[in-house]
């Protein structure tokens, strides 16, 4: 291992509550990794342990080849050379933007500090705000100052805690793209904590999905989305449709016909999950295996519309996303097909 952040077999408890249970995670050179999971699963604790703000109880943390925490080892936060962007940015209110960025650069002389700050300000597109105070900046500008301040001492690793959650929807996308561009340009390995699956898909080279203190799956965004390890990971990225069936003669009986049960044993209860865009109006792709359904609602969701439907025969509910303008409305009877390759099978106990 040459650079990056390496967490190995971390366990952590607060009082008698186990919060992290055997977590291992690598953020390699130049990589952006998103740690994704719901509130309370232990993401911020993981970040704080990596930064040295929380003392490690068990396991090992390395930055590059240097072990910074482990049995008998505790390198204090200020000498780990880890840049941290906290959720609230924590800018110094009495310092200007330039002052904030120059703050941690004590080893440089004044001219070098000014040059470093000017370069970063140009990079984050805020050169014109060098003399402004934090309270006069928008949320997106504050976020970029916090990013520049964390990058200024040339950290070996960057940690960002929900860096876009305080921004309004219109600013968020642009700030995310700028952040990714800057992190890329500087090549600094970065771990970003988020509970937003869309954000993780857009930002990450790899996503580590966390649940109850463990990583349940880690991999490139496309792998996590297309090959979820379990129903939890699948549902995190949106899979509102589910059938249940039991394997009989190697098949599963669904409202759309029999499908192969794959590697599941005879008699096993299986959940079949699929996304809303796998449901089509028959005629889009031909009529084979189409079933009748009644539209119970249609809602616009931006570029797409989402229809909720009830299958005529079984009453089971399905959700279908399609480009809007289809003219569907509540009460319509339609014929549906499903892209069977989009079915994901999981043990019903999952
Ligand atoms: P969120 O997205 O809501 O911040 P998270 O995934 O970052 O959630 P953590 O902040 O790491 O989760 O918290 C994990 C669990 O540990 C939570 O149940 C939290 O209440 C608990 N916890 C965190 N810090 C402490 C602490 N200092 N003392 C006691 N319990 C704590």
Order of helices and strands: EEEHEEEEHHHEHEHEEHHEEEEEEEEEE
Q: What is the count of DSSP helices, taking H or I runs of 4+ residues?
A: 8
Which CATH C-level class of the largest domain is it? Alpha Beta
Molecules bound to protein = adenosine-5'-triphosphate
What strand line-up does the widest sheet have? 7-8-9-3-10-11
**Average pLDDT value?**
92
Q: Overall 3D geometry?
A: globular
At CATH level 2, the architecture of the largest domain is 3-Layer(aba) Sandwich
Taken together, the total number of domains comes to: 2
Radius of gyration: 25 Å
Helix residue percentage = 10-25%
CATH homologous superfamily name of the largest domain? P-loop containing nucleotide triphosphate hydrolases
Give unreliable regions as ranges: none
What amount of the residues lies in strands? 35-45%
């Amino acid at each position: 291992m040459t650079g990056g952040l390496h967490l190995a077999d971390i366990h952590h408890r607060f009082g008698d509550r186990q919060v992290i249970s055997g977590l291992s995670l690598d953020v390699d050179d130049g990589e952006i990794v998103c740690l994704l999971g719901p509130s309370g699963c232990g993401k911020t604790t993981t970040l704080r342990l990596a930064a040295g703000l929380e003392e490690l109880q068990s396991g090992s943390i390395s930055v590059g080849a240097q072990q910074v925490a482990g049995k008998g080892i505790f390198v204090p936060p200020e000498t780990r050379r880890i840049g941290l962007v906290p959720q609230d940015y924590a800018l110094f209110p009495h310092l200007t933007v330039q002052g904030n960025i120059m703050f941690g650069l004590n080893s440089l002389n004044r001219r070098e500090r000014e040059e470093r700050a000017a370069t970063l300000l140009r990079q984050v597109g805020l050169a014109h705000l060098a003399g402004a105070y934090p309270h006069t900046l928008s949320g997106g500008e504050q976020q970029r100052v916090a990013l520049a301040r964390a990058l200024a001492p040339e950290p070996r690793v960057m940690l960002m805690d929900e860096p876009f959650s305080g921004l309004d929807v219109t600013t968020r996308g642009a700030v995310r793209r700028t952040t990714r561009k800057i992190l890329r340009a500087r090549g600094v390995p970065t771990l970003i904590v988020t509970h937003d699956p869309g954000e993780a898909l857009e930002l990450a080279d790899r996503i580590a999905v966390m649940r109850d203190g463990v990583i349940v799956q880690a991999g490139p965004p496309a792998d996590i989305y297309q090959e979820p390890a379990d129903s939890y990971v699948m549902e995190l990225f949106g899979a509102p449709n589910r059938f249940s069936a039991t394997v009989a003669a190697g098949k599963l009986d669904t409202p759309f016909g029999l499908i192969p049960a794959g590697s599941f044993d005879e008699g096993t209860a299986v959940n079949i999950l699929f996304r809303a865009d796998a449901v089509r109006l028959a005629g889009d792709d031909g009529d084979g295996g189409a079933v009748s359904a009644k539209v119970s609602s249609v809602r616009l969701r931006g570029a797409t519309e989402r229809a909720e439907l009830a299958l005529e025969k079984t009453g089971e509910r399905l959700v279908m996303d399609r480009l809007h303008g289809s003219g569907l409305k509540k009460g319509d009877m339609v014929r549906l097909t499903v892209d069977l390759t989009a079915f994901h099978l999981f043990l019903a106990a999952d």
